[in-house]
Write a structure and sequence with these properties.
52% of the residues lie in helices and 16% in strands. The protein contains 28 helices and 23 strands. The strands form 3 sheets. A 6-stranded mixed β-barrel has the order 4-5-10-7-9-8. Strands 15-16-21-18-20-19 form a 6-stranded mixed β-barrel. Helix 17 runs antiparallel to helix 24 and helix 17 packs across helix 26. The protein starts with a helix and ends with a helix. About 4% of the residues have low confidence.
Length: 877
């Protein structure tokens, strides 16, 4: 019993002193050998004799309470003991713990960050009651090539009175307001709305009241306004007494009647006024967007069919204004979160899942290596009576601790990432202001942390709980499961490499696409161009003559500024996010198209010298002082318009009628090069230019200034010129064209950066995983390598052996990754520009890059193998 008492005391110290394992191992080995010899002396075959000896040790442990499973407490106490012991084991291996936690935190943090975006953009309900019943309506005219178009007020009124499927319909139109507070004039983005607009959305003011029906009557002179929560805080300091105050808006007094809730946003609008339409406006005056709330139980398709029937009736009743007009629209969710945005997010979801799988494979490899180093410990405990389930539970408790620590760090990384995404302000995220780490996100982070236990912890625990006790407890013996674990580690590395190759190819495709975009010829020269918007007060500049006199003086004085090369005006600057206004086109003498469709073109108003200022090549003549409101109307058209409507003749001198510009017939005086106004990834449509001198009052102009040096340096000088002419004319939205170009590529840049980041993380993790496998392989085969060297093998042969093993794993993974990428790259097709999803360069460079990194990862272990001392192998044998 003396031997038993010593063994029990030492086993109890196991949780306090790991060195006791060596003593226990020696005593168990001696006990097993003695029992084996005794059994053989009794005539038992050697194998059976040793198995019986091992069983006696286990029986001893179970019957004397020496089992690793300490008895006395419930499962909670046992779990707590497991976690305490697991924590001690992790602190004794700080290098392993740090690498494992950081690896898992990267995967968990990336997944939690992307889920935060998915939660805000896709999963979270819209901030309107019963938002699934809200729709957005527009008109369309396929004959004129307009798939969506603003709604005329008269048509809207007929929709509202004749439909049978909507609970209510309301209308709105965007507008800019010159708000004067304390003598300071600021241009505010706003909207004019019908009195029931907010009611249809289910929104009520937090202060004051909504608009009244009588405040929205045609021709009404009631001047009232609603403030957004942001404007209320920014300009009025959250003063609750703002309701009832008078504001000067567009040089006219308005009374504030209410403040809207913080959660309500509508197309960046900060100020709302009643619609009060002009009674003289006809059905051809299209300027409204209509929203509707479906009746309970009514399907969207049925409601749309109802409105289309009404549109057909109106076309028969008013053929001059309504012929060819129909109705189109979409549910609010599809409008706010377009399908392409949802598809992009799903691509990123797939990418971060790949990163998580790679991270879990990496940590599983680390755990397998760690389990190999702990084989004797595990064998001793099982020999003392611990069951396999008990060993698995202990090892999983350590994995659980790793996951929870990594989950906490990953949550912090997700919060930082979300803030970074907000700062990047990508157009890919339509509900950016709603991004937040809420309870659902934290629950997801906890769930993904627990899931990683199964992904990276279970299989290593299962492998480690099956040691060969006979071999492990032999002096100098090696685990017979080592080769099996090596195969598993190889499979994990192959998986990492395959997933990394797929991500690298996806990132390569986006990078190639982005490079193509940056090299697109825009049709003008964006360097050294400064642009700003000017809002003329309507009550002081009512006609075209007054407005053009102001603009003409502004241009003259701006051009005289030092450092200014040229200046011009336009109704829509390229790359500013707004396209040209559209107009039906009639070409005298041209037969109608066989399908009955009517030609159309975009149009913009520009001043003389605009094409020269932007560097747009022109054939023919530019606008000049001859082109006035009293002269023959003239226009300059784009090359695309010339190709489309005059394919086999010179359009110079030809007449063309622009229906939206008063049905006037214009004479073509010039053909300008095509301009990609909506961005490098958009097509150049047919465009007609008309002179500002003819339509100065009808537009909110943008001043464009070409400078000889940095354009931002001229901002103050141009502002001073504007103040000297009229100090009450506000200037806003000051940007350079190069900044507009940069912003126009924002969503493409964001997609490329995000997927590239995931691919880079995957490449790093895969290379680390391969390095770990090869380093462990060298350490496990040190004896074999020493013997090889002792028997005459050259160090170069050993180097090639290790490199060859690693490159076989990497090449196998790369081949599988290429196969997977061929199937997955088609999901990137909508994100690509002038690049095929099977682009040869991307599919060549990505695997080559990974194989190059893999070669570097194998180099250090291979060099270490070359330096193995042959005496090590001989001594071991």
């Amino acid at each position: 019993m003396e031997w038993f008492n010593i063994l029990r005391a030492r086993l109890r110290a196991l949780f306090r002193r790991e060195s006791v394992l060596q003593d226990i191992e020696e005593e168990l080995r001696v006990h097993v050998e003695m029992e084996t010899e005794t059994n053989i002396g009794r005539g038992t075959p050697p194998d059976e004799a040793r198995a019986a000896a091992l069983k006696s040790v286990g029986d001893l442990g179970r019957h004397t309470e020496l089992s690793y499973d300490i008895r006395g407490g419930g499962w909670l106490e046992t779990l707590w003991q497991d976690l305490r012991y697991g924590a001690r084991m992790l602190t004794k291996s700080p290098g392993f713990t740090l690498v494992a936690v950081l690896t898992l935190a990267l995967g968990i943090g990336a997944n939690t960050a992307i889920f935060t975006v998915v939660n805000a953009v896709i999963l979270r309900q819209l901030p309107f009651p019963n938002a699934d019943r809200l729709v957005r309506l527009r008109e369309s005219n396929p004959e004129r090539g307009w798939s969506t178009f603003s709604v005329s007020h008269s048509n809207f009124l007929d929709w509202r009175t004749r439909n049978q499927t909507f609970e209510a319909l309301a209308a709105t139109s965007g507008d800019n307001f010159n708000l004067s507070v304390g003598g300071e004039v600021e241009v505010i983005r706003g909207a004019i709305i019908t009195a029931d607009f907010l009611t249809v959305l289910g929104i009520a003011p937090v202060l004051g009241r909504n608009f009244l029906p009588e405040e929205d009557r045609p021709g009404g002179n009631v001047r009232v306004a609603l403030l957004s929560h942001g404007l209320w805080q920014r300009r009025f300091g959250g003063d609750r007494g703002v309701v009832g105050k008078t504001l000067t808006i567009n040089d006219t007094p308005f009374t504030v009647v209410g403040v809207l809730p913080k959660s309500f946003t509508w197309e960046s609008s900060e100020l709302f006024a009643p619609l009060a339409p002009d009674p003289a406006a006809g059905r051809g005056d299209h300027r409204l967007t209509v929203i509707g709330r479906l009746k309970p139980g009514v399907a969207w398709e049925r409601a749309l069919a109802d409105l289309k029937t009404i549109a057909q009736q109106l076309a028969q009743q008013f053929p001059e204004s309504n012929k060819g007009w129909s109705v189109t629209g979409q549910k609010f969710y599809d409008w706010i979160v377009p399908e392409q945005n949802r598809r992009s997010l799903l691509v990123f979801v797939g990418a971060v899942i790949f990163v998580l799988l790679i991270a879990c494979s990496n940590v599983a490899n680390l755990l397998l290596a760690r389990a190999s180093a702990r084989q004797k410990e595990i064998a001793i405990r099982m020999a003392l009576g611990a069951g396999r389930l008990r060993i698995i539970r202990q090892l999983l408790s350590e994995s659980l601790l790793l996951s929870l620590i990594a989950g906490g760090l990953g949550a912090l990384m997700a919060m930082w990432t979300v803030e970074a995404l907000k700062m990047m302000n990508p157009a890919t995220l339509p509900r950016l202001n709603e991004l937040s780490v809420d309870g659902r996100v934290l629950a997801f982070g906890l769930s993904i942390s627990l899931l990683t236990v199964a992904l990276f912890g279970l299989f290593p625990a299962l492998q480690a709980s099956r040691p060969d006790l006979n071999e492990t407890l032999k002096e100098g013996g090696r685990s017979g499961g080592a080769s099996g674990r090596q195969r598993v580690r190889g499979v994990l590395v192959i998986t990492e490499v395959a997933l990394s190759v797929a991500l690298l190819i996806g990132a390569g495709l986006l990078l190639r696409s982005f490079s193509k975009l940056q090299n697109v010829k825009l049709g003008f020269e964006p360097e050294n161009l400064l642009t700003m918007r000017i809002s003329l007060p309507r009550n002081r500049y009512q006609g075209d003559q007054e407005a053009w006199a102001f603009y003409a003086r502004l241009l003259r004085e701006t051009k005289t500024l030092p450092g200014v090369q040229d200046a011009a005006l336009t109704s829509a600057v390229p790359l500013a996010g707004t396209g040209n206004a559209s107009s039906a086109v009639e070409i005298p003498g041209k037969a109608a198209a066989p399908d009955g469709s009517q030609p159309s073109a975009g149009w913009r108003v520009v001043s003389p010298g605009y094409l020269r200022t932007l560097g747009i090549p022109l054939r023919g003549r530019d606008f000049d002082e001859r082109d006035t409101a009293k002269s023959q109307p003239v226009t300059i058209i784009s090359e695309e318009m010339a190709r489309r409507y005059w394919p086999s003749e010179d359009p110079l001198g030809k007449p063309v009628t622009l229906r939206s510009l008063g049905d006037k017939t214009y004479t073509i005086i010039g053909v300008a090069s095509d301009v990609l106004s909506l961005g490098p990834d958009a097509e150049a449509g047919p465009t007609a230019y008309v002179s500002t001198a003819v339509m100065a009052r009808a537009i909110q102009s943008r001043l464009v200034v070409r400078t000889r040096a940095e354009p931002e340096a001229q901002t103050s000088a141009v502002r001073a010129v504007l103040r000297s002419i009229d100090a009450n004319v506000p200037v806003y939205d000051i940007q350079t064209i190069e900044q507009l170009l940069y912003d126009s590529l924002g969503s493409r840049r964001f997609n490329t950066f995000l997927l590239g980041s995931f691919a880079g993380a995957a490449l790093l993790l895969a290379s680390v995983g391969l390095f770990g496998v090869m380093a462990y392989l060298v350490s496990q085969r040190t004896h074999e390598i020493g013997i090889r060297l002792a028997l005459g093998a050259r160090p170069r042969d050993v180097f090639q052996l290790v490199i060859g093993r690693g490159m076989i794993l990497a090449s196998t993974g790369a081949a599988l990754g290429l196969t997977a990428a061929f199937g997955l790259s088609r999901y990137l097709e909508t994100l690509l520009f002038q690049i095929k999803p099977t682009d040869a360069l991307a599919f060549t460079v990505a695997p080559a890059l990974l194989l190059g990194v893999a070669l570097l990862a194998c180099f250090v272990p291979a060099r270490r193998a070359m330096k193995v001392d042959p005496l090590v192998g001989l001594r071991g044998e």
